Amino acid sequence: LHLSIRRQRQMCIRDSIWSWHLGTTDTSKTRRTVDDLSTALVSPDDETAIGSAYELGTTSAGLDVLFGHSLLNAPARPEDTGDLHLRAIAAYGIVRAGEAALPMLLSQIENADADQQVRIVDLLGDMATKAADALAAITPLAASPHISVRRATIEALGMITQQQKTLDAAVIDAFTQALGDHCLLYTSDAA
Questions:
Q1: pLDDT at 68
Q2: Alpha-helical runs (H) found in the chain
Q3: Rounded alpha-carbon distances, angstroms, from residue 120 to 25, 102, 105, 152
């Protein structure tokens, strides 16, 4: 029985990763309730929590739960770190949701502070080719006054466009400008 439960926890993760490798879309849906998955999301057991995040990413109600815990919800005060572990776990499910998460991510990017922009762009980069519809929104961030935003944006642009045979002129320009951005080179080398 224990092995069966363990396999069920990981099935959604396996299906999602396998579909990614095949270049297909995982359309599987969870059979568990959002309430059950929300409870499991806060489990101290990483396997349980990550599996629940992936399953929550298969439904719109689950995606709402993930956004409630996500890296986008930074603490009100810098000294209050919140539950960074839970925020990171929620990101797995948001990435799993792929295109379904784009409207929420893109609605927040323009008015977000630099730290939140980095989080959003990082999530979009992790979605890779599934975030192609975000290119127009994030490409201008490659010229941000914040080095961390520029670096995250260039990385995300590379991940998102990796399979495109032709690139938009704005994306090519962003990559070209990044090659001459000494701050990006030195910061990433120092990191």
A1: 87
A2: 2-22, 34-41, 46-56, 60-69, 84-97, 102-109, 114-127, 135-138, 147-160, 169-179, 182-190
A3: 21, 10, 6, 9
Residues 6+ apart with CB under 8 A from 34: 56, 59, 61, 62, 65
- Per-residue confidence band for 147, with pLDDT thresholds at 50, 70 and 90: very high
AA letter at 185: L
Cβ neighbours, 10 Å, residue 125 = 21
Q: Which amino acid is at 89?
A: I
Which two tokens mark 12?
Answer: 């959604």
SS3 72: coil
Q: What is the DSSP string of 74-120?
A: --SSTT----HHHHHHHHHHHHHHGGGGHHHHHHHHTT--HHHHHHH
* pTM flag (> 0.85): no
* CA–CA gap between residue 118 and residue 141 (Å, rounded): 10
- Amino acid type, 161: T
Integer CA distances (angstroms), 28 to 56, 98, 111, 113, 171, in order? 11, 13, 33, 34, 33
